[in-house]
Amino acid sequence: MIDLHTHSTCSDGTDSPFALVKKALAAGVTTLGITDHDSTSGWNEAITAIQPQIQLVLGAEISCLTTDGISVHMLGLLFDGEHQEMQQMLEESRDTRIPRMRKMIELLRADGYEISIEDVNRAAPIGATLGRPHLADALVAKGIVATRDEAFLELLHNDSKYYVSHAAPTPTDAISVIRKAGGVAVIAHPFASRRGEILRAESFGDLLVAGLNGIEVHHRDQSADEQKVLTEIAKELNLAITGSSDYHGTGKLNSMAENTTHPAQWEMLESATNARRVVTA
Asked: What is the pLDDT of residue 97?
């Protein structure tokens, strides 16, 4: 089984990179992508956990904003982790998250929600890339909501009055840097309408020109109809079709390998890199 999209405590997951690999092994995953938000800090630890039954695809999920303000996530897979421009892009994205978090907290407090940046920091693992899931966890810890999912549904979704965007590369810029770093770019859950505004079908043309390699079609946040349309777009543009869990541990309902990628589609992606970077035991 091939699961190319998972998260650890290095961003907003609840399993350490080591534990994440072990859970993938237990679930029968043979190819695992570790794609923390705007970070490669979990790579080395994840590598220490691999065994002959599993290979590791190192990557990151890059937070992007279109020119008209739509939040988009781009999976960069198998890029050179030492590539300077790539690491600079990831660092700049991380650096904007703290002032963004302070602004969201300010908006929540203005409406009577007793939450602070200290609460959020306590909810986040040490060294994690700070994000909305940690704010959600802090709201749970304070008894304001019952679960992380409830926090997103009621307070933290993209259309919420409390949502604040942050400085981020455009999707085309992110694709360009991923490709310069020798990796492949897969747009994550582009039609996940429950998260807020989504890309338009005509947007994929520009992404293709920028070097897009694949579309994450099979994802729990995309309806059957949305997945059907995305499949048609991918086939028309000769892009790889992926399916992934977007596993976050106990932080979300997503189960490891609940959606997977067909081996032929994975081979199509891997063949587009500039060097073989899959890590094996």
From this structure: 84
How far is the C-alpha of 205 from the C-alpha of 225, rounded, in Å?
A: 21
Cα distance between residue 71 and residue 215, in whole Å: 16
Please give the model's pTM, rounded to 2 decimal places.
Answer: 0.88
Q: How far apart are CA 102 and CA 91, in angstroms?
A: 18
Q: Where are the chain's structural domains?
A: 2-94+167-270, 97-156
Q: Which residues are CB-contacts of 247 (< 8 A; sequence separation ≥ 6)? A: 3, 5, 6, 7, 13, 20, 254, 255, 256, 257
Confidence grade of residue 192 (pLDDT, cut at 50, 70, 90):
confident
Give CA–CA dist 74/225, Å, rounded: 22
Of the two residues 234 and 130, the one the predictor is more confident about is 234
Tell me how far apart the alpha carbons of residues 195 and 246 are, in angstroms, rounded to a whole number.
Answer: 14
| DSSP assignment string, 146-184 | SSHHHHIIIIISTTSTT--------HHHHHHHHHHTT-E
Query: Which pLDDT does position 264 carry in this prediction?
Result: 98
CATH level 2 (architecture), domain 97-156: Orthogonal Bundle (1.10)
* Of 193, 164, 98, 64, nearest in space to 155 by CA: 164
70-107 per-position pLDDT tens digit: 889 999 999 999 999 999 999 988 888 889 999 999 99
* CB 155, CB 145: distance < 8 Å: yes
Q: Distance (Å, rounded) from C-alpha 135 to C-alpha 124?
A: 8
Strands 184-188 and 71-77: antiparallel
pLDDT, residue 252, reads 82
Fold held by 2-94+167-270: TIM Barrel (3.20.20)
| Axis-axis angle for helices 84-95, 171-180 (nearest 10) | 140
